[in-house]
Amino acid sequence: MRIKNLIIFGTRPEAIKMAPLVKEFLKHSDRFETKVCITAQHREMLDQVLSFFEIIPDFDLNLMKPNQNLYTLTSDIIVNLKPVIESFKPDYVFVHGDTTTTMAASIASFYSGAKICHVEAGLRTFNMKSPFPEEMNRTVTGAVADIHFSPTKTSQQNLINENKNQDKIAVTGNTVIDALLYSVDKVNSNNFIDDEVDSLKSILEIDKRLILVTGHRRENHGQGFINICNALKRIAIENNDVQIIYPVHLNPNVQKPVYDLLGDVKNIKLIAPLSYPAFVWLMSKSYIIITDSGGVQEEAPSLGKPVLVMRDTTERPEAVEAGTVILVGTNSDKIVFEANNLLNNKEIYTLTSKLHNPYGDGTSCKKIVEFISNL
Ligand code: UD1
Ligand code: UDP
Question: Are residues 226 and 341 in the same domain?
Answer without folding.
Answer: yes
